Amino acid sequence: MRLTASEVDAIKTCAKTVFGEGVSVRLFGSRTNDAAAGGDIDLYIEPPSDELSTLRNELAFKLKLMDAIGDQRIDVVLRSPMGTRRPIDRIASETGIPLL
Description:
This protein is an alpha+beta fold. The chain contains three helices and four strands, in the order H-E-E-H-E-H-E. Strands 3-2-1-4 form a four-stranded mixed β-sheet, sandwiched between helices.
């Protein structure tokens, strides 16, 4: 996994702050490959409730995280607990590395 310990800590802190306890966060995509270089930080987030699964919270999370780790490319896939499971949900949950 190509994230520093401080980046992982920032992701965890920001996710809990915005989405609350019980949030699930996985890193997926190119940053899971230690042999690769570059790439955005792809995060798959499952809030504990539908009420927390909003665009407003997604944007708040990204802004807090950018403030904490600097201006990096961050992609967030937000899954509503009650929503229909999409192909990206399956890929991220099966291949992603749990951070929280």
